[in-house]
Amino acid sequence: MAARKINPWLKQALELGPPLLFFVGYLRIKDDSFLVGGTRYDGFIVAAALFVPLLLLSMAILWKLTGKLSRLQAVTALLVVIFGGLTVWFNDETFFKMKTTIVYGLFAALLGIGLLRGQSWLAWVLDEFMPMAEEGWMKLTRRLALAFAVLAIANEVVWRTMSTEAWVKIETFAFPVALILFLWTQIMLLQRYLEEPEG
Protein backbone atom coordinates (compact mmCIF):
# COMPACT_ATOMS: atom_id res chain seq x y z
CA MET A 1 0.00 0.00 0.00
CA ALA A 2 1.42 3.39 -0.99
CA ALA A 3 2.03 5.87 1.80
CA ARG A 4 -0.40 8.79 1.94
CA LYS A 5 0.28 12.23 3.40
CA ILE A 6 -1.84 13.48 6.28
CA ASN A 7 -2.04 16.72 8.20
CA PRO A 8 1.29 17.03 10.10
CA TRP A 9 -0.52 18.27 13.23
CA LEU A 10 -2.74 15.17 13.21
CA LYS A 11 0.34 12.99 12.74
CA GLN A 12 2.05 14.65 15.71
CA ALA A 13 -1.09 14.25 17.82
CA LEU A 14 -1.26 10.52 17.04
CA GLU A 15 2.44 10.02 17.80
CA LEU A 16 2.67 12.18 20.93
CA GLY A 17 -0.85 11.63 22.25
CA PRO A 18 -0.33 8.26 24.01
CA PRO A 19 2.80 9.33 26.01
CA LEU A 20 1.10 12.58 27.04
CA LEU A 21 -2.08 10.75 28.05
CA PHE A 22 0.03 8.30 30.06
CA PHE A 23 1.69 11.25 31.80
CA VAL A 24 -1.64 12.95 32.61
CA GLY A 25 -3.25 9.68 33.67
CA TYR A 26 -0.34 8.80 35.93
CA LEU A 27 -0.47 12.18 37.68
CA ARG A 28 -4.20 11.77 38.31
CA ILE A 29 -4.05 8.26 39.77
CA LYS A 30 -0.46 7.96 41.05
CA ASP A 31 -1.58 7.85 44.70
CA ASP A 32 -4.51 5.50 44.12
CA SER A 33 -4.69 1.72 44.09
CA PHE A 34 -7.13 -0.50 42.22
CA LEU A 35 -8.38 -3.99 43.03
CA VAL A 36 -8.72 -5.98 39.80
CA GLY A 37 -9.45 -9.71 39.80
CA GLY A 38 -8.31 -10.03 43.38
CA THR A 39 -4.98 -8.30 42.75
CA ARG A 40 -4.22 -4.76 43.89
CA TYR A 41 -2.45 -2.50 41.38
CA ASP A 42 -1.05 0.94 42.08
CA GLY A 43 -1.67 3.95 39.84
CA PHE A 44 1.52 3.54 37.84
CA ILE A 45 0.68 -0.05 36.84
CA VAL A 46 -2.84 0.95 35.77
CA ALA A 47 -1.54 3.93 33.76
CA ALA A 48 1.01 1.65 32.06
CA ALA A 49 -1.71 -0.91 31.29
CA LEU A 50 -3.88 1.77 29.69
CA PHE A 51 -0.94 3.16 27.71
CA VAL A 52 -0.51 -0.05 25.68
CA PRO A 53 -3.95 -0.09 23.98
CA LEU A 54 -3.78 3.69 23.52
CA LEU A 55 -0.47 3.36 21.67
CA LEU A 56 -1.77 0.49 19.52
CA LEU A 57 -4.94 2.45 18.70
CA SER A 58 -3.00 5.55 17.69
CA MET A 59 -0.67 3.47 15.50
CA ALA A 60 -3.63 1.68 13.91
CA ILE A 61 -5.20 5.05 13.07
CA LEU A 62 -1.88 6.32 11.73
CA TRP A 63 -1.48 3.21 9.57
CA LYS A 64 -5.06 3.51 8.32
CA LEU A 65 -4.59 7.17 7.37
CA THR A 66 -1.10 6.93 5.87
CA GLY A 67 -0.96 3.33 4.70
CA LYS A 68 2.45 2.97 6.34
CA LEU A 69 4.26 2.62 9.66
CA SER A 70 8.01 3.08 10.02
CA ARG A 71 10.12 0.17 11.16
CA LEU A 72 11.07 2.15 14.27
CA GLN A 73 7.40 2.63 15.16
CA ALA A 74 6.69 -1.08 14.69
CA VAL A 75 9.63 -2.16 16.86
CA THR A 76 8.75 0.39 19.56
CA ALA A 77 5.12 -0.79 19.62
CA LEU A 78 6.21 -4.43 19.95
CA LEU A 79 8.50 -3.65 22.88
CA VAL A 80 5.81 -1.54 24.58
CA VAL A 81 3.34 -4.43 24.30
CA ILE A 82 5.88 -6.94 25.68
CA PHE A 83 7.10 -4.84 28.60
CA GLY A 84 3.68 -3.35 29.32
CA GLY A 85 2.33 -6.88 29.51
CA LEU A 86 5.14 -8.00 31.82
CA THR A 87 4.52 -4.95 34.02
CA VAL A 88 0.88 -5.91 34.55
CA TRP A 89 1.47 -9.68 34.70
CA PHE A 90 4.10 -9.41 37.44
CA ASN A 91 2.57 -6.26 38.95
CA ASP A 92 6.05 -4.72 38.85
CA GLU A 93 6.75 -1.26 37.43
CA THR A 94 10.41 -2.17 36.82
CA PHE A 95 9.56 -3.80 33.48
CA PHE A 96 7.89 -0.68 32.11
CA LYS A 97 10.78 1.51 33.21
CA MET A 98 13.31 -0.88 31.66
CA LYS A 99 11.41 -0.72 28.37
CA THR A 100 12.96 2.67 27.60
CA THR A 101 16.46 1.30 28.20
CA ILE A 102 15.75 -1.66 25.92
CA VAL A 103 14.33 0.55 23.13
CA TYR A 104 17.25 2.99 23.15
CA GLY A 105 19.78 0.21 23.67
CA LEU A 106 18.34 -1.83 20.81
CA PHE A 107 18.48 1.13 18.43
CA ALA A 108 22.08 1.83 19.46
CA ALA A 109 23.01 -1.84 18.96
CA LEU A 110 21.33 -2.10 15.55
CA LEU A 111 23.00 1.06 14.29
CA GLY A 112 26.30 -0.16 15.73
CA ILE A 113 26.01 -3.53 13.95
CA GLY A 114 25.40 -1.72 10.69
CA LEU A 115 28.44 0.47 11.26
CA LEU A 116 30.62 -2.59 11.93
CA ARG A 117 29.47 -3.88 8.54
CA GLY A 118 30.38 -0.55 6.96
CA GLN A 119 26.73 0.33 6.41
CA SER A 120 24.29 2.97 7.60
CA TRP A 121 21.09 1.16 8.47
CA LEU A 122 19.71 4.58 9.40
CA ALA A 123 19.89 5.51 5.71
CA TRP A 124 17.93 2.35 4.89
CA VAL A 125 15.13 3.56 7.18
CA LEU A 126 15.14 7.29 6.47
CA ASP A 127 16.72 7.88 3.07
CA GLU A 128 13.38 8.36 1.32
CA PHE A 129 12.48 11.13 3.77
CA MET A 130 15.88 12.84 3.86
CA PRO A 131 18.16 12.12 0.87
CA MET A 132 21.79 12.51 1.92
CA ALA A 133 25.23 11.49 0.70
CA GLU A 134 26.65 8.25 2.12
CA GLU A 135 29.34 10.07 4.12
CA GLY A 136 26.66 12.16 5.80
CA TRP A 137 24.62 9.07 6.68
CA MET A 138 27.66 7.37 8.19
CA LYS A 139 28.46 10.38 10.36
CA LEU A 140 24.85 10.76 11.47
CA THR A 141 24.59 7.04 12.21
CA ARG A 142 27.71 7.03 14.38
CA ARG A 143 26.52 10.05 16.34
CA LEU A 144 22.97 8.76 16.73
CA ALA A 145 24.16 5.33 17.86
CA LEU A 146 26.18 7.08 20.57
CA ALA A 147 23.20 9.28 21.50
CA PHE A 148 20.90 6.26 21.87
CA ALA A 149 23.53 4.53 24.04
CA VAL A 150 23.77 7.61 26.27
CA LEU A 151 19.97 7.79 26.59
CA ALA A 152 19.81 4.09 27.49
CA ILE A 153 22.39 4.59 30.25
CA ALA A 154 20.65 7.78 31.41
CA ASN A 155 17.34 5.93 31.71
CA GLU A 156 18.97 3.25 33.86
CA VAL A 157 20.43 5.91 36.15
CA VAL A 158 17.13 7.81 36.39
CA TRP A 159 14.80 4.93 37.20
CA ARG A 160 17.24 3.32 39.62
CA THR A 161 18.09 6.48 41.56
CA MET A 162 15.03 8.75 41.31
CA SER A 163 11.36 8.58 42.21
CA THR A 164 8.78 7.12 39.86
CA GLU A 165 7.24 10.57 39.36
CA ALA A 166 10.63 12.01 38.37
CA TRP A 167 11.14 9.13 35.92
CA VAL A 168 7.73 9.67 34.33
CA LYS A 169 8.46 13.38 33.79
CA ILE A 170 11.93 12.75 32.37
CA GLU A 171 10.71 9.86 30.19
CA THR A 172 7.81 11.91 28.82
CA PHE A 173 9.58 15.20 28.21
CA ALA A 174 13.34 15.31 28.81
CA PHE A 175 14.42 12.29 26.75
CA PRO A 176 12.30 13.10 23.65
CA VAL A 177 13.26 16.78 23.74
CA ALA A 178 16.95 15.89 24.10
CA LEU A 179 16.70 13.52 21.14
CA ILE A 180 14.86 16.05 18.97
CA LEU A 181 17.38 18.79 19.77
CA PHE A 182 20.25 16.42 19.05
CA LEU A 183 18.78 15.44 15.67
CA TRP A 184 18.08 19.06 14.79
CA THR A 185 21.65 20.13 15.54
CA GLN A 186 23.03 17.18 13.57
CA ILE A 187 20.91 17.99 10.52
CA MET A 188 22.17 21.58 10.70
CA LEU A 189 25.78 20.36 10.96
CA LEU A 190 25.33 17.91 8.07
CA GLN A 191 23.60 20.32 5.69
CA ARG A 192 26.35 20.02 3.11
CA TYR A 193 25.61 16.31 2.70
CA LEU A 194 21.90 16.76 1.97
CA GLU A 195 20.80 16.05 -1.57
CA GLU A 196 17.84 17.25 -3.59
CA PRO A 197 15.21 14.50 -3.88
CA GLU A 198 14.89 13.04 -7.36
CA GLY A 199 12.05 14.48 -9.40
Compact overview of the structure:
The chain is mainly alpha-helical and 199 residues long. The protein has helices at residues 8-29, 43-66, 71-90, 94-116, 121-126, 134-161, 164-189; strands at 33-36, 39-42.
Describe this structure in words.
The protein is globular. 75% of the residues lie in helices and 4% in strands. The mean pLDDT is 90. The longest helix is centred in the last third of the chain and has 28 residues, at 134-161. The two termini are 21 Å apart. The protein has 199 residues and is mostly helical. Helix 1 packs antiparallel against helix 2, helix 1 packs antiparallel against helix 7 and helix 6 packs antiparallel against helix 7. It has helices at residues 8-29, 43-66, 71-90, 94-116, 121-126, 134-161, 164-189; strands at 33-36, 39-42. Strand 1 (33-36) and strand 2 (39-42) form a beta hairpin. It has seven helices and two strands. It has two domains: 1-90; 93-199. The chain has a two-stranded antiparallel sheet with strand order 1-2.
